[in-house]
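Training component of the fellowship. As part of building independent skills, the fellow (R.M.) carried out the full modelling exercise for a liganded target. The chosen ligand was iron/sulfur cluster. The inputs are recorded below so that the supervisory panel can assess the work.
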Amino acid sequence: MTQKTLHKRHSDLANSKRQLQILSNGIFQNGDLPKFKDKIAESNQFPLKARKLEILQINVGYMCNQVCEHCHVDAGPDRKEIMTRETMQQCLDVIKKTGAHTLDFTGGAPEMNPNFRWFVDEASKAGIKDFIVRSNLTIIKSNKKYYDLPEFFKTHNIHVMSSMPHWTKGKTDKQRGEGVFAKSLAALKDLNAVGYGMPDSNLRLDLVYNPTGAFLPGNQSALEKDFKKVLLEEFGIHFHNLFAITNLPISRFLDYLIASENYEDYMYSLVEAYNPAAVQNVMCTNTLSVSWDGYLYDCDFNQMLELPVSSKVKHISEYNESLLEGRKIVISQHCYGCTAGAGSSCQGSVA
Ligand code: SF4
Ligand code: SF4
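Fellow's submitted model of the complex:
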């Protein structure tokens, strides 16, 4: 059965307020589990504060060619929210004056924004050298207008971070849609062909693993070994590193947890796996997330929950480094997903 976005299904959970209610009620309201705020206070880490900005993560739109089961963006072909060139220009004005060294493009499928390549070209002219694109891989094979993306990525030395939930067709296609595994392998081969992911190559190609069900990821280095072995031996594919990330209990993954009656058990697992040492390295401490319409959030997850930054500055057009630095990070129970085990945000293990 083809998955539909929560928006298309007119689900209650398409409303971020409803998601926040679920995350604050029940087991957290009656005290069975501690709220995230109280948990980090145990090790004197509340309030969590932003440090110096290093990474600007820009969500250029929620449109995607896939409709994955776990998607925290509720992305899909029916989502029409797309960053305009005007908002991109406002981001470029900020890039020229901040010390941020990395631009991290996310979506949806960021490559589907018609101004994506223009944006990268202009950011490159503005002096950005470190680019990350969160690519779902299949976009490269979805239409001939995207076939040359590997060459484009190479021109700007873009670091490609690609989702790949498993090395088997069954588990990958179940989470991400029929045919995704085969197309992902074909795209990885195209990336390898231009040098991405090859041993000793500077063209970085990393894979991002996230569990296919209501469980936490296993050990990152053991998973990397398994992925490397199977992808190389069976398909001749190379990549650099694998990042294992925990699914956060929001959006379509929250919907899945509730529908499969796993929500409470999953929250118990997250709280049980809480690691105080992971708190200081969560991505919101050095990253600012910009939404398709230019609003500012502590991270992409808060963006989806419509929890804006706690600052007078709310929009990229009003950007002010001194007002944003040191701001209190807006947290809720979904944050347990970033501090479970070794910790993960969008970049795999952080501690
Ligand atoms: S998880 Fe990524 S590839 Fe899948 S629907 Fe969401 S944005 Fe698209
Ligand atoms: S969900 Fe966002 S705000 Fe919460 S800890 Fe993770 S990165 Fe920080």
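The panel noted the following from the submitted structure. Residues 111 and 246 are 24 Å apart (CA to CA). DSSP finds 13 helices and eight strands in the chain.
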